[in-house]
Amino acid sequence: MSQVDYAVHDELQSGETPRRRTLAPRRAQILWGYVFLAPWIIGFLIFVFGPMLASLYLSLTDYNIEHPSDTKFIGFDHYQRMFSVDIVREDAAGAVQLQSGYQDVFNIGDYHLTARDQRFWKSIQVTLNFALFSLPVNLILALTFAVLTNTRVPGVTLFRTLFYLPSVIPTVVAAFVFQQFLRTQDGWLNMYVLHPLGLGNPGWLQDPNWAIPALTLVGTWGVGTAMLMFLAGLQNVPTELYEAARVDGAGWWSRLRHITVPMISPVILYNLVIGLIGTFQYFVIAYTITIPAGRGGNELSMYVYNLHVYREAYVFFDMGYASALAWFLLVIVLIVTGLVFRSSSKWVYYAAGGKA
What we know:
The chain is mainly alpha-helical. It has three domains: about 55 residues, no CATH class; about 40 residues, no CATH class; about 230 residues, MetI-like fold (Orthogonal Bundle). It contains 15 helices and three strands.
């Protein structure tokens, strides 16, 4: 017998009850934590991590959903197709000599950027323009609504509800509403607001110059969630700071700039990161609002990145190339998010008064 068996035998011979082994409280807490986390972990491995690995493998093949049995491993050919570009200069007659399979993307003066996948670069351009234009507008609008509703006046709860209510409306419904709202001749915005003011009838859904403003306008429909985050941050700002600032003669702008914004900077960081991720994942509105649906509008002016991924996967059935596009998007989002967090040490302040 082992030493443990001899110890138990001696305890039985002496009439003592054998001691039961028990887990330390700390280990028991950790074990129960993993037990409660198990459903999420299993779901993540099956429905998220597993498909991610599958898409990574597909990005290295020529998998086509119409001919799955003909799939071949092609390595990094899809990534090479994405980044195959060439810079061409116009000749004396103003013509551009393109390589076989290349298309013109854009030009700066006499120089033209050409690429094998023109729509890939166009989608990146549209997505970046949309992010630079839409994200600041949405953040400023959400903060404005939060500041306006962070008051103790009768009916403020009703206004908070009204500002948040559009966020719970399905995105597809909002897109169809804005299709009517932004029509050129009989749209509600042009007919009842802009035209009576003498501002003309902008072609929101037809003119490429108005495409990004149109998408941004539709995006403001859902700022209610960010507004609630800002409102929660505003209500945690100590009132003593505002009272001291008023005693010193600070106006509302000085209080907003030197007290409110620094104190809610962690919330600004959170909304900025969530907004960036949402901008790069933008799809439903751009797909639904374009006419015909999913084509990206005139001159691909609304052709966001995820629209390109969708068309490669479910229009051309090139799942391998679509998987490569999706993985490139993941890398871009990780890089941009990392840069935002890295810069946060210079402008994000926490309750202790130090920077992030």
